[in-house]
Amino acid sequence: MGLIEAINISHSFGDKILYKNASFELFKGEHMGIVGHNGTGKTTLLNSIAGEIIPDKGEVRIQKGIKIGYLDQHVKIDKDITIFEYLKTAFNDLYEIENKLNKIYENMVEDSSEETMNKASDYQSVLVNRGFYEIESTVLKVSDGLGITALGMDSKLKNLSGGQRAKVMLAKLLLENPDVLLLDEPTNFLDKSHIEWLTDYLKNFKNAFMVISHDYKFLDKITTCICNIEFENIKKYTGNFSKFLSSKKLNQISYEREYKAQQEKINKLETYIAKNKVRASTAKQAKSRQKQLDKMEKLAPPKNEVKPKFNFSYCPIGSGKALTIKNLEVGYNGKKLLPRLSYEILTGQKIVVIGFNGIGKSTLLKTLVGEIPPINGYSWFFEDIKIGYFEQDLNWEYGEDTPLQIIMEAYPKLSVKEARMHLAQCGIKAKDISQPVNSLSGGEQAKVKLCLLTLKPCNFLILDEPTNHLDVLAKEALKEALKKWEGNIILVSHDPDFYKGWNAKIIDIEKLKST
Question: Which residues share a beta bridge with 4?
Fold first, then answer.
């Protein structure tokens, strides 16, 4: 038996079947990637493994004594403590052993029996072997790798953004060193250098892990096996992501041939039955063929995923200046995050803002769109500029509303048919259109937000990490749409492949801060 065994598990939301009667195992030391298009049930699977939800059918068996670490960004934490204090809680069991050891030393005058001394020796060995006396340097090493020390180790959790807090929670999980790591899109809030550090860390991780990611270069480097969720099934492949793609292609070709051969056989049987069931001399043979047809386990038709289309509504504008930034200082509660900025953007110009997470990129965008007041200076969009803003956080005012309700409320002039058409075009499946939006996967929610944006007439798109949750087809579709977009773009992204070939001006915030 593996560390984790999924046995004939099924899960659905309403009429939407994610997977049924699926089985696989995770063995000691395996590094498993979980892949599939948006909405196929990847996060649901991890939640089942973590015990957060129970499968509709089947069971998940976990080997006795196995410690599972799950990156749950919604878990309640004490936000009044510092980053360093929080990360040290990864070693709470060792601090408890230290307390027990100290009590033994305190009571040694009264109790110095051999049994007590042996217990003290055992405690001391555990502390030494598990690196208790190197905790501070271990914490700082992981924090450096993920870019957390730049936030200030004495900073309180309540003063961090959602993305910064997610990084700190990831660091704590790595420090806990569980037998099985469960990671859901761990690179979403990391920039290039920190993704490289995490890649090396996971490649050398001695224990097992299961990781969901749409960063396929990242997966290719860290995985030894892949679980693919598609067509209501979960199939495990050995090897990294590249090997999985090759195996999947061969399996698809084989399946298509098998399906074609079965269809030809079905057609022959049906033709024979139709011709011979009314003749007395051949009715018996026709009946026999009908039984054969009824017992046949029919293969489902091969399915091809449909690539979304994002057609943004462009409002024409003349040439000239689009945005002026003058002596702008941005931050929170009077704390300046970036150096003073002065910049002019001409109409049609595309800008990509890069730099490590937490440096202030999202704060800059929120200041430009008026969500946060500037500390000093100003930014001014010229007349006729109409802004379309994509915020990276998946927050909904009414999370129980369906995608259809959200589109209809935002654009009441649309008919139900038109709203459905726009959602479908952006990759939202018919069965998801009437589900509560907060029950959808992160990728599906991002597509709903992009659908809203495509319907808004604008000429200046401001996009904060729009690809974080998108699968490869949606990411490609968005890249194509933005590449041919005639208007202005300010994009924050940590994915160079996404904006490659845009002819965009790159602004590196880190270089600005160092000047």
Answer: 26, 62
| 62 vs 69: CA distance, rounded Å | 13
| Distance from C-alpha of 208 to C-alpha of 152, rounded to nearest angstrom | 31
pLDDT for 124-145, tens place per residue? 999 999 999 999 999 999 999 9
DSSP annotation string for 275-311 = HHTT-TTTHHHHHHHHHHHHHS-PPPPP--PPPP---
Provide the residue type at 341 as one letter: L
CB-CB contact of 87 with 172 (8 Å)? yes
Contact 91, 132 (CB under 8 A): yes
pTM value is 0.83
For residue 365, which phi and psi values (nearest 5 degrees)? -65, -45
What distance in Å separates the CA atoms of residue 17 and residue 372, rounded to the nearest whole number?
Answer: 42
Q: How far apart are CA 374 and CA 354, in angstroms?
A: 20
- Name the helix (H) or strand (E) containing 47: helix 42-50
CB 356 within 8 A of CB 492: no
In three-state form (DSSP H/G/I as H, E/B as E, the rest C), the secondary structure along 474-498 is HHHHHHHHHHCCCCEEEEECCCHHH
Could you tell me if 491 and 499 are in contact, meaning their C-beta atoms sit under 8 angstroms apart?
Answer: yes
Q: Is 435 left (phi over 0), alpha (psi -120 to 50) or beta?
A: beta
In the prediction, which pLDDT does 509 show?
A: 84
Each residue's pLDDT tens digit, 92-131: 999 999 999 999 999 887 888 889 999 999 999 999 999 9
Q: Are 27 and 3 in contact (CB under 8 A)?
A: yes
Three-state DSSP state, 440: coil
pLDDT band at 10 (very low <50, low <70, confident <90, very high): very high
Residue-wise pLDDT for 175-201, tens only, equals 999 999 999 999 988 888 899 999 999
Asked whether the CA dihedral 181, 184, 185, 188 is positive or negative, the reply is negative
Contacts 24+ apart (CB under 8 A), 137-143: 138/175, 139/84, 139/87, 139/88, 139/90, 139/171, 139/175, 142/87, 142/171, 142/174, 142/175, 143/83, 143/87, 143/171
Contact present, 87 and 81 (Cβ < 8 Å): no
Distance, CA of 270 to CA of 167 (rounded, Å)? 60
The single residue listed with the structure tokens 């209809």 is 408
Instruction: Report the 10 Å Cβ neighbour count for 366.
Output: 18
Q: Is the dihedral of CA 425, 214, 351, 391 positive or negative?
A: positive
